[in-house]
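User: what does the whole thing look like in 3D?
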Amino acid sequence: MMRKKAGKFFIIAIDGPAGSGKSTTARKVAQRLGFFFLDSGAMYRAVTWLALENKVALNDSSALAVLAEKAVIDFRQQDGKQLIFVNGQDITRQIRLPDVTNAIAPIAANPVVRKILVEKQRVFGKLGNLVAEGRDIGTVVFPNADLKIYLNAPAKVRARRRVTELAEQGVEADFAAIYSALLLRDANDSNREHSPLRRAKGAVELDTGDLTIDEQVDRVVRLAKERME
Ligand code: C5P
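Assistant: Here's the predicted 3D structure for the full assembly of 229 residues, as structure tokens:
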């Protein structure tokens, strides 16, 4: 593993709106560089899933704080895939279900939950070289990241990608419904009071509208390698 300075790891922070290609880009960049891939959205999804499972009201801050604090969230690699476990249970599939996606907003807007999850995310930055993706990675979680990227693309392009992605999983989706859900999520993420989605200071902005995933990955890997020299 490549180290920058003694005891310091190389951190790549990737932020951007839903459908900008963050997850796929971050995962592939991590594979190419041999870095750990930190999917911070999966952690917000995990807490949301826990809240639904435990019938905790989504506005009950103190109960949510206990759930988040106690949650042992870990990522495991299996057959080239990354799985997420919470308190020992594999919830990789469950956290992507619409019930969870639709319930996330109040949890992601909750400052107590955010503080707890940010602390948990920073622990991963002490374990090794890392590619982290989310909405506040370069602004809040790792403001001193070695490379910050802001991925963006027009909303229609992002919605079309989601429809294709779902079709590949055998799920037929209506473009108009996906598009309006995406606009709603953009608005929730950008307008919330705590850690809204913003381009971090010093972030390189990549508009992925005309880029393939491989091109996005190549650009990020190239930028990272330049900064590692
Ligand atoms: O990236 P993903 O779609 O899995 O994220 C799910 C939700 O979690 C986002 O819509 C956002 O509200 C929230 N999130 C966040 N901060 C992060 C990552 C995700 O608020 N760092």
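In plain terms: The longest strand covers residues 73-78. The domain at 11-228 is CATH 3.40.50.300 (Rossmann fold).
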